[in-house]
Specification:
Helix 6 crosses helix 7. The radius of gyration is 20 Å and the shape is globular. The protein is an alpha/beta fold. It starts with a strand and ends with a helix. The protein has 16 helices and 17 strands. It has two domains: 225 residues, Quinone Oxidoreductase, Chain A, domain 1 (Alpha-Beta Complex); 160 residues, 3-Layer(aba) Sandwich (Rossmann fold). Strands 5, 6, 7, 8, 9, 16 and 17 form a seven-stranded mixed sheet that branches. It binds nicotinamide-adenine-dinucleotide and zinc ion (2 copies). One zinc ion binds next to loops.
Length: 397
């Protein structure tokens, strides 16, 4: 039996590399004939992982992390018809059965059959069905024919792997944020957050034809990264309000569309920049978005947060000024990105050089041994997207 290693959450601030079981084509005691085993080519660290690693969720010790997976199929179950051993594939972070009502409607982020506790599942994530994570050497993927996106050519895929690795989550997620905010040709859009999701969203806004993409954050290095590919930026530590800074850029204190790429660990603005204000981004995007505009909210909000700022925040109840949003007839879209809705088209944009997404989010490839350090550096706010290379395949390329 080959061996396997995984990146494991131990306690707030601590992840370690541990020996873990080699995956089997099984879900508990049940055989999983529709699954495949992947040798992992690349697996990325995400801001969503950080919520767990900072102790801001109810994630248990011992959880094998990792939901952003690209791999090579090394074994296929009896009922896998179309995916073949040797294929290089992108794995949507959402696990979906392809058979339930929501999957049939394309809502693969809230599949009804993959998590007994609630709709929606993911690899290596708290409350997401107990599926083993893919920051590992090998992982099992169920419902493989439905879930996997096969890259057309192995050599081409490995040559563009730093871009293609972003198809498992942040590129579709950022793009979904932009699409759900109604971004199209000529749009003026505000993207809150210049982490990897915010940067992927900003690059997606350009791809969709936005006239002006304004990115806000409190970390200068990340704002600089946003400017490197043509975004305007606002520094939310400044005393000028978000609306005032937007006015300085576009002449009016208003945008057509806005996307929250921050989530519940949001910092306050101006004099509150050092403290957590979980509803700040939601309230500020309602404030600056024009009446009739739409808000994309890929930033994560949780149902349980042991570190919440007050008793309400601990159960995900935030002080949102819904009256303002209502008065402006805003509509908003929350939830997991249904990755499969977008990943094929975005793969083609990468393969045909329509976008330099790895460059936009500043991908840095790290060895498996360096994953704990990658977590630390990312937590400090490095303007990087860390991509783990478990078998040295990226380093070799
Ligand atoms: N919906 C989905 O499917 C999905 C998928 C992936 C990630 N996410 C979520 O998207 C969010 C961003 O992910 P990431 O990897 O970029 O994380 P990240 O933590 O690297 O980035 C968040 C950024 O927001 C900034 N920020 C904090 N307060 C702010 C404020 N008030 N205004 C503007 N910026 C502020 C931080 O400085 C940081 O740079 C996370 O909540 C993550 O869980 C959701
Ligand atoms: Zn992710
Ligand atoms: Zn389903």
């Amino acid at each position: 039996m080959p061996t396997n290693r995984g990146v494991v959450y131990q306690k707030p601030g601590v992840v370690t590399i541990e020996s873990i079981d080699f995956p089997k084509l099984a879900i508990g005691k049940r055989k999983c004939h529709h699954g495949v085993i992947l040798k992992i080519v690349s697996t990325n660290i995400c801001g969503s992982d950080q919520h767990m690693v900072r102790g801001r969720t109810t994630a248990p010790a011992g959880l094998v992390l990792g939901h952003e997976i690209t791999g090579e199929v090394i074994e296929a179950g009896r009922d896998v018809e179309f995916v073949k051993v040797g294929d290089i594939v992108s794995v949507p972070f959402n696990i979906a059965c392809g058979r339930c009502r929501n999957c049939k409607e394309g809502k693969t982020g809230i599949c009804l059959n993959v998590n007994p506790a609630r709709p929606g599942a993911a690899y290596g994530y708290v409350d997401m069905g107990g599926w083993v994570g893919g920051q590992a050497e090998y992982v099992m993927v169920p419902y493989a024919d439905f879930n996997l996106l096969r890259f057309p050519d192995r050599d081409q895929a490995l040559a563009k792997i730093k871009d293609l690795t972003l198809l498992s989550d942040i590129f579709p997620t950022g793009y979904h944020g932009a699409v759900s905010a109604g971004v199209g040709p000529g749009t003026i859009v505000y993207v809150a957050g210049a982490g990897p999701v915010g940067l992927a969203c900003a690059a997606s806004c350009h791809l969709l034809g936005a006239a002006c993409v304004i990115v806000g954050d409190l970390i200068p290095e990340r704002l600089k990264q946003a400017r490197s590919f043509g975004c305007e930026t606002v520094d939310l530590r400044a005393s000028a309000s978000l609306a005032q800074q937007i006015e300085q850029i576009v002449g009016v204190p208003e945008v057509d569309a806005a996307v929250d790429c921050v989530g519940f660990e949001a910092r306050g603005h101006g004099k509150d920049a050092a403290v957590e204000r979980p509803a700040t981004v939601l309230n500020s995007i309602m404030e600056v978005t024009r009446a009739g505009g739409a808000l994309g909210i890929p930033g994560l909000y949780v149902t349980g947060d042991p570190g919440g700022v007050d008793d309400n925040a601990k159960v995900g109840m935030l002080g949102i000024r819904i009256g303002l949003g209502w008065a402006k007839s805003h509509c908003f879209t929350t939830g997991q990105c249904p990755v499969m809705r977008y990943h094929r088209q975005l793969m083609q944009c990468i393969l045909h050089d329509k976008i330099q997404i790895a460059k936009a989010v500043n991908v840095k490839v790290i060895s498996f041994e360096d994953s704990p350090k990658g977590y630390q550096d990312f937590d400090k706010g490095a303007a990087r997207k860390f991509v783990i290379d478990p078998h040295g395949m990226l380093a070799a390329g």
